[in-house]
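User: I'm putting together notes for a lab meeting next week and I want to include a structural view of one of the chains we've been expressing. I don't have a solved structure, so I'd like a prediction I can at least talk through. The sequence is below, exactly as it appears in our construct file.
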Amino acid sequence: MKTNKLYILAALVLPLLMTSCDENEQFRGELYKKVIYLLSTDDYTFESEHELGEETTGYVTVYCGGTQHIDHDVTVTLEPDPDAVGDYNYMYFDLDESRYAHTLDASRYTIESYQTVLRADGEDNYALLPIKIRPDGLSPDSTYFIPLRIKSVSDYEINSDKQKVLYQIVLRNQYATMATTTYYQVTGVENRHLAAGDVAGGISVTRIFAPLSKNQVRCFAGTNTYNPSNVTKAEIDKYAMTLTINADNSITITPFGSLELEMLGGEADNYFEVDSRGRFVFNLHYRYKDTIAGESAWIEMTESCVQRR
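Assistant: Thanks for the context. Below is the predicted structure for the 309-residue chain, given as structure tokens.
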């Protein structure tokens, strides 16, 4: 009777052990399986900052997954993906064309070769494909992509879920970047020149700066503010002004759109400096016209904009 029980126990346990061994082999196989893919976020985008005023180089990263290092070189060839930007726009914005991303014009970048090589003698299982970007003239209010996908590999499999990337050009200069929202804290005096008499008062407001060129930034005039995620082109046209930082650190203030604006004073009133804490400071004196309680009025601003960190 005891012998029969042992046979029964063995009959029950052996299949479990065999199943366990099969699962371990499968798991081990998945760990060591090598697949080629492109580095990106879940929505296939990969952001790279590019300095305005010069040609700069960014990189698309090609990875080989797996727990073991490759034992021979693998050539990976990429190609443009003409449908990727349209798919992205449809997925995230549907019919709201005002928020559509754009395919970067070919004149603004150079890819000298669409091939890169994963080296067996390299320290890591990745390779870089360089892209030279010329960002001058791009708008901080638009999203620009270079859409790419893996065309072929000399060995191993392509990860179908990560075989494409939307390389995103992010604008920056030394004063502001679009990678994150750049804030400056503004303090000063606002003087409203109304028909009933002048009304002056102190101000304290957080202002967003956006890069336009190597030596230009854009911000809203006065105490007007906006949310970067839902600001409209009409609001930008109505309230935005351009600050040009000249070689002598003087600042020239001009309207960005249709804002009626005049710079007041000279270099002594409008200048850029770096304070004792290393923060950028824009000292400004100007006036702009706005409608207050149905009345058109000049609003004079004397302010200091200090970079927030």
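A couple of points you could mention at the meeting. Confidence is low (pLDDT under 50) at residues 5-13, 26-30. Residues 195 and 269 are 26 Å apart (CA to CA).

User: Perfect, that's what I needed.
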